Amino acid sequence: MTDGDVAAFTHLGETVRGALSERGFSTPTAPQRVAIPPLAAGKHTLVIAPTGSGKTETAMLPVFDHLLAEDGERSAATRPSSADPADRGPPEGFGVLYITPLRALNRDMRERLEWWGEYLDLEVDVRHGDTTQYQRSKQAEDPPDVLVTTPETLQAMLTGERLREALQDISHVVIDEVHELAASKRGAQLAIGLERLHDLAGEFQRIGLSATVGDPGEVGQFLSGGRPCEVREIDVGSNVDVTVHKPEVTDEDETLAGKLMTEPDTASHVRVIRDLVAEHESTLIFVNTRQTAEALGSRFIELELPIGVHHGSLSKEARIDVEDRFKAGALDGLLCTSSMELGIDVGRVDHVVQYKSPRQVTRLLQRIGRAGHSRNEVSSGTIITTRPDDTFEALAIARRARAGEVEPAAIHEGSLDVVANQIPGIVKSRGSRHMQDAYATITRAYPFRDLPEETFREVVSELSRNRILWHDEGEDRLETSGGTWQYVYANLSMIPDEETYEVHDIASGSQIGTLDERFVVNFAQPGEVFVQRGEMWRIAEIDDEEARVKVSPIEDPAGEVPSWIGQEIPVPAAVAGEVGEIRAVAEPQFDAGADAASVGRELAGRYPADEYTLTEACEQLEHQIEADSPMPTADRLVLERRGRTVVINACLGHMANETLGRTLSALLGQRAGSSVGLETDPYRIELEVPSSIATSDVLEVLEETDPDHVEAIVELGLKNSDALAFRLAQVSAKFGALKRWQNSGSGRISNERLLAALEETPMYAESVREVFHEDLDIDRASAVLEGIQSGEIDLVTHRGRTPVGQGGRSSSGKKLLAPENADASVIRTVRERLQDDRVILLCTHCQEWNVKTKVKRVPDQPECPDCGSTRIASLNPWAEEVVQAVQAETKDDEQESMTERAYRAASLVQSHGKQAVIAMAARGVGPHNAAQIINKLRENEDEFYRDILSKEREYARTQAFWD
C-alpha cells in the first residue's frame, strides 16, 4: 500500500475503516484516493470518474464518518473545523440527502448503501413518487439518517411542514449523475431547490458525482451555487480501448439476410454484434434511439439469442426483469439506450458495443466506461458503423475520447419557466415573502445568477395574472392565492407532460411498456403489428379514454417500429469539423494518385480502425475526387445542385447547420414568395427550392447576409413554426397560462392563436431561448457567414450531385427490420382485416335491395338480384341513414348529400367491382380517396393494400379536424 493509499483512508474514523475491512476494501480506488481528503474536510466537491469506479462509496464514506462524528473517535488532525456541518452532532431529522435523476438509481443506491447503514447503525431509506403513504408518514415521524430520493421528490418535501422540520438538520447533499442534471431544466430547478434547502438548513456540504465533462469547473459552480468547489477528476480517456469497425458482407450474411427478411449489409451488423457478444461474458449494446433498440432486439429474438432490450418506454417491471437477468448471467447481452449510461447496477460488464456513431465524446466515454471498471481494467468497446459519415464521425469521437477532448455540459442559463415553477413553491413553503427575499434565493442558484430583477418581476406579474399567487404591489410581497397549492403539487417536475399510452398484454394483463400518442394516432389500429421489448405484438383494442393499448403476442418478422418522442443526439461542431479535417488530409493524397486503401493505411496511424473499415470509408472520398467534385472540408463549403435540390456540404455539426439552414430557408423563401423545404444533418444543409431560385441567389444570401442579423432572421422564421408552438404550450403550462387560454371559451387553442396571444410575454421569450439553446448555434452560424465573407472559408459550387453530398444520414431503425416494401405481414394483416369487415350493398337503381355482408363474400362484380343493375353502392355497416336517404321520396339538404355520396360509390363499384368495395371498406376512405387508390398504376396487389394503409394513416392523423 502506497503512502497515498494510506493517506486517503486515514481521513476516516475507526468504525468506517473497520467497515472497509469487513467489506473487502483493502486499498482505495482511484477516485477515493483523490477525493476523500477534501470530502473529509467538509469542502464542496465534484468527483468526476467513470461509472463503476466506486464513486458512490467515495462520496459516502466521509459522509458516514461525519454522521458518526459524535463518537469522538477521529483524531484532531482529521476532525473538521467548527464551521463544518458535521459538527452539529447526531441529526434528529434527515442527515443526508442522496439525490439521483432516476428512480431505478434510487433502488440501486438503497441496495448499495443498506449494508453500510446496517454495519454502521445508520438508517438508509428511499423516497420517490411510488413510495407508499404509510412509508412517507413514517419518514416524517422518524426521519432516516440517509434518504435516497429524486429532484422532484425534494420539491415536494420542501413544501411539507413536518418534512421541512426534518430537513433543517441536513448536513450533506450528494447529487449523483450531476452532469446529466446540469444540462437540463430539471437541474436548473434542483439548483434553486438546493438554495431553498439552504434557507431552511443553513450551510451543508454539497457533493457531486459526475461522468467526464468538458467544463468541470462550470459543473462544480452549478453544484455549489457559485461557492468555492474542489474538483477531483480521474482521467478516463487513457483507460479506454475502443475500435471502430464497419462490417464486411460475407456469404453467411447473404443467408442470414434471407432468414431475417433484411438486407445483407444490415445482416452483417447483426452478425458482428452476435459474434462480439459470444466472445465476451457480459456485453452492453448501446444504440442511439429506442426504435433502433426494438428493431435490433427483434432480430436477436428471431435468432433466439440471449440478448434483452432495455429503454425508457418499457414498463418498470420489464426493465427490472432484464436488468436482473443480465446481472445473473441469464442474458449475455443487453440492448440499451441512454437509460444505461447512468449508473444502474447490472453487474460486471466486460465489453461495450456502440451501434452507429455515439455522436458525442461524452456519450462514448459514459457508455464505453461501463466496461471493465469493477476490476480496474481498461474499458473495451467496439463502435459498429454503417456508412462513411458514420465511420469518420466515430473515428473522430474515438480519438477525441482518448485525448480527453470532451464537450461542455450545456447549462440552462436563466430558464424563466423554472423561475415561474419555483416562486409559488417558495411562497407555499415559507408563507408571505417580500419580493426581494424570493429573488435573492433564486439568484443564488448558479444558472440564475444573472437573472435581471425586471425579468423576475415580469414572471411574478404573469403568475399573478394567472392566479397562481397574489402579488401585493403596495407592500411588494408575494402571497398564496387559491391556485397556489394546486399548482405546486401539479408541477413538481420540469419534465414536459406528453400523453403516453400504456401497452398491456391482453392474455396476462401485465404492462409491457408505453407508446407515444404520436405513434398511436399515426399508426396504431386494431390488427396492426408493432415491435416492443424486441417482440412482435398485434393490437387488439385501443382505449383512448384510459390511454391504453391492449395487445397479443405473435410471431412475425416484420412489424412496425414504434416511434417515441426523443430528440436526436446532436453532433457537436468540433466533431463534425474533425470529419472535415480528415477529408482535407485525404484530398491531396488522392490528387497525388493514392487509392482508398493507401489513404486508409495513412489514417490508421491516428485512428483506431481495421484496414477494411478505413478503406471502405475512404472510397467515398476517392469517388468524390474521381468525379472531379470539390471536397467539402472544415474550411470549405461545397454547394451542389440538381433540379430544385440544393445541398450545401458543411462540416459544422447539427446545430450550426440547422441555424444556417433556417436562415437560408427564410431569406430564399422571402425572395421566391413561397416556402423552401429544409433538411439538415451534421454535414449537409439540403434545400428544396422553387424553380425561380437560382444558384446565384443561394450564393448571394451566404455572401451578403449580415452575420449580426442571423438571430433576428431565425427568430422571425420561428414565429409560425410548430416547434416553437410546441415549446410555448409546455412553457406556458408552467406559468399557468395555457389553462387560462384553454378555459377562455375556445376549447383547444390553435398554434397560431397561442403564438399571437403570448408573443410579448416571458413565456414566449423562454420558448425562443429554449429552441436556441437546444436546437441552434447562432454564434457558430454567424461566424461561418463572417468566414465566407472574409475569405477564410471557401465557398465553391458544383453542378449535379456528388458522392459526399448524397451520403446523408439514413432514416431510423426501420431498415433493421426489413428492406423497403418487405412488410408482407403488415400488408397481410390489412388484407385480412378488410376482407373480414362488413359492408352494406345497396342498389341505387331500384333503390330497394340492400344487404349487409362481409367483404370476402362480395362477388367480383356485384349486381342487384332484383333488377340486375350493377350500380351497387358499398357503404359502411353503420350507414343505415344513407340507405334511408336514398330511399326517401323527398329529401332535405343532408339527405341529398348522402344520396349523392351513395351514387358516387355505386359508380365506382360499377366500374371497378370488388376492388372498389375493398377500398371503401377502409377507415376514412370514401369514394374520392378510393378512386385515387384504384386509378394508380401498380405492379402487384400488395401495392394496392399498401396505398389503402397509407390513406388510413392519413385519415388517423387528420381525424380531429374532420368535425
TrEMBL record:
Question: Which SMART domains does this chain map to?
Answer: DEXDc, HELICc
Q: Where is the Helicase ATP-binding domain?
A: 36-231
Q: Where does the Helicase C-terminal domain start and stop, copy by copy?
A: 272-417
Positions of the UniProt region annotated as Disordered? 73-92
Gene3D superfamilies associated with the record: P-loop containing nucleotide triphosphate hydrolases
Q: Which UniProt keywords apply?
A: ATP-binding, DNA damage, DNA repair, DNA-binding, Helicase, Hydrolase, Isomerase, Nucleotide-binding
List this protein's GO terms for biological process: DNA repair
One annotated GO molecular function? helicase activity
Q: Does the keyword Manganese apply?
A: no
Pfam families (alphabetical): DEAD, DEAD_assoc, Helicase_C, WHD_Lhr
Family under the similarity heading: Belongs to the Lhr helicase family. Lhr-Core subfamily.
Protein name in UniProt: Helicase
